Amino acid sequence: MAYLLGIDTGGTYTDAVVLDDNANLIIARAKSLTTRPDLSVGVGAAIDAVIEQSRLAPSDVSMVALSTTLATNALVEGQGGRIALVFIGFDETELGKADLKEALNGDPVLLVKGGHSHSGSEITPLNIKSIRVELESIPTLITGVAIASRFATRNPAHEIAVRDLVHDVLGVPTTCSHELSQSLGGPKRALTAVLNARLIGLIERLITATELHLTSRDITARLMVVRGDGALISASAALERPIETILSGPAASIAGAKWLTGAQDALVSDIGGTTTDICILTNGLPKIDPMGAKVGKYRTMVEAVAMHTFGLGGDSEISVTDGLEGSLTLGPRRVIPISLFAQNYPDIAHVALDRALALEAPPPGATSFVVPQWQNYPEGLDVREAAVAQRLSAGPLQWSDAVVSRVEESALARLVQRGLVMMAGVTPSDASHVMGLMVDWDAGAATKALTLFGRHRIGTGERLNPDPKSLAQLILDRLRLQTTWALLETAFSEEGWKNAADLARHPLVAAGLSNHSKVSRFNTGLALPVIGLGASARNYYGPLGAILGCRIILPEDAGVANAIGAVVGQVAIHAEGTITSVGEGSFRAHLPDGPAQFNDKDTALAALRTALTQQATEQAKSAGVEEIRLTENLDLREAQIEAQTMFIEATLRVTARGRPRITN
Q: 536-587, pLDDT tens digit by residue?
C-alpha cells in the first residue's frame, strides 16, 4: 500500500491529509493553527494528528508533499527580509520600471558597471575589487542579495561572479535573475530576484520545520513542494527558488478541487485567512499565466497558474472608510482575529476590552493589539523600532501601550512589514463567532471587540453600529460583496474586458445582479459554477449563488483541498535556452553554462537540445522521478527576404515530467 501525506501551511491554519494512493481515498484529515514565529509547532501538530488518526507506521508514508500560501501572503502584505540588489549594467532610471523601486522599498542598491549585449558579448568588465568594497559598506543588516545583470539570460557570467563574491563577503543567500527566468526584460527579472531574496528566510523556516518534525517521527519519505504552476519540485529546489512557491497553495487548491468534485469547467475560489485566490478551470485544467504570476501589485516572471489573488480573507483587517456613511472595507492586510488573540492571551485581551467598554468614548486602538513574532530579539533596528520592540520583549501589548508617540507609528509599521510583529484586530472571523458560524475561538472576546468597534464615530457624528450582531452581519455582507467583485473581476478579465476591476464595481453591474427591470432591464451573473474552497467557505459562500445566479459547490473536504492537491501532482522540470545569430554562418547557442559559437543552425540547436535535456533530466532525477517523459517546444523565428530564409532567433524548452518515486 502507498500512503501519501499532504501538508498545506496557510496564514491561519496548517492542514494535513493522508491519501491512500491505491484506493484514491482520503483516510485521515487534520487541522492546526499556523504558529508564528515557530512554524514547527503548527506543522508538527497537524502531522501528529493526521498520523495518529490514520494509525500509520512511519514506514507506511511513501511521499510527503507541502504547499503553502505563506510566500503569496508575504508579497500581498509587503513583508519579507531586508535585502540588497546588485544591478549590473543598468542605470538608475531603470529602477523605476516594473515596480522595482517600489518593491525595494528603500533597501540598498549597488549600481555596478558591467553586463552583456543581446548576443552575450561582454560590454564592460566587472571591477571585482570595487564591488567588494561596496558590499562591505552596505549600511544595514540584510538577509539576502538579489543579483540582476543586463542580458544575463544571454550570458550569466557576471551574475555568477558577483554571486561568488557575495558568498565570500557577506555569507548570505543570493538570488541570480538568470536562475529564475530565461526571459528578456532586465528590470522585471530584477524584480523577480528581489522578491525571491525576500522570501528565502520564510520558506527556509517552513521547510526546515517540516523536515525536522518528519525526522522526529521517523518518517523518511521524500519531501516535495508544490510550485506555482501546480507541479512538484524537491525541497532543495524550493529553498533555492522560493519565489516559485508563490501561488503554491492556490495551485494545489486547483488540483484538490478537481480531485474532490471531478469538475471540468468552473471558477475555483479559495478563501484563506489572508487572500482569496480565484482561477478558472477549463476542460479540467487551469490556465498558465503567459505574462508571469501576478501577486498583489507585482507582475513577476514566475510561471504559475493564471490565478487572480485578492487581499481578502477571514482574517482581513476591517477599517471604516471616510465619509458621512462610514462604510466598511476589508483587507488587504491580515491581522490576528481578536477571538484567536483572546484564546491565546485571555488576561491581556479581556482586561483591555473591559477597560475600554467602561468608557463612553473608547480611545483609538481600543480593539488593536501588537504581538511580537521573533524568537531571538531582532538586530538592525533603528532607535524608534528598538523602542517599540523593547516594550514588546515581554509579550503582546495593547496598541496604545506599544506605541507611545505618533512618530513611533511608522516604526511599528516597519516592524509589521518585516514580519517581526503582527497586529490583532477585528476581522470577519470575529463576526462569524458573534453570529455563531464559528466556535473555534473566544466568542465572548469577539462580541466585546465588535461592541467597541461599533462605537466608532462616522462622518455624521453617529456611532457606526452599537449592536454587535448587527455589525457582524454588516461585516459578513461586506465580505460577500467584495467576494462578488473578485469573482466578477476574474470573469471579466478572462473574457478580455478592459478595466475589469472597475467594471465589476460599476453601478450597472450592481443593477444587473439585482435583475433590475423598470424602464431598462439589466441582468448579470456567472455562467460557470463556483467551487468554494477553504475552511470558512461554508460560512461565507452559500448566499453567493443567489447573488451571482450560479451554482455554488462546497465539497465536504473543502477545508483541506490544498493539502489534497499537494499530493496528487507531478514533477515538471523546465529547461530553456535560445540561439541567436550575429551574422551569416554564425550561430550562438546560449547554454546553461554560457554561450557557445557554431557555424550552422542545426549544430547549434543540437548542442542546445543536449544541454537542456541533460539539465532537465538531472533535476527530475534529483526530485525522485524514475520514469521520465521528455517533451520539447521549439519557437523558431525566421523571415523570408527575397526568396531566402533568414534566421532571427530560436527558443527551445525541454520539459521532464513524471511522478516522484513512491516507496512501498
A: 999 999 999 999 999 999 999 999 999 999 998 888 888 999 999 878 889 9
Instruction: Answer yes or no: do 505 and 590 share one domain.
Output: no
Residues 496 and 610 in one domain: no
- Closest-CA residue to 117 (of 474, 582, 570): 582
Q: Which residues span the domain enclosing 624?
A: 571-658
* Contact assessment for residue 5 and residue 24, using Cβ atoms and an 8 Å cutoff: no
Q: Are 223 and 67 in contact (CB under 8 A)?
A: no
Same domain, 458 and 342: yes
* Domain match, 164 and 99 both: yes
What is the total residue count of the chain?
Answer: 664
Q: Does 651 reside within a domain?
A: yes
177-231 pLDDT, tens digit per residue, is 998 888 889 999 999 999 999 988 889 999 999 999 999 999 999 899 999 888 8
Residue where a domain terminates, one of 142, 169, 200 = 200
d(CA 122, CA 571): 36
Note the helical H segments in 505-600.
507-513, 537-540, 544-548, 561-567
Contact between 427 and 441 under an 8 Å Cβ cutoff? The reply is: no
- What are the residues whose beta carbons fall under 8 Å from the beta carbon of 547, sequence distance 6 or more? 480, 484, 513
The C-alpha cell at 465 is 453600529
Distance separating alpha carbons of residues 441 and 424, to the nearest angstrom: 14
Report residue 506 as a C-alpha cell. Answer: 460599476
> Torsions phi, psi of 572, nearest 5?
-140, 110
Same domain, 492 and 630: no
Report the alpha-carbon distance of residue 244 to residue 222 in Å, rounded: 19
User: Which candidate, 351, 352, 619, 328, places its Cα nearest to that of 464?
Assistant: 328
CA distance 660 to 234: 9
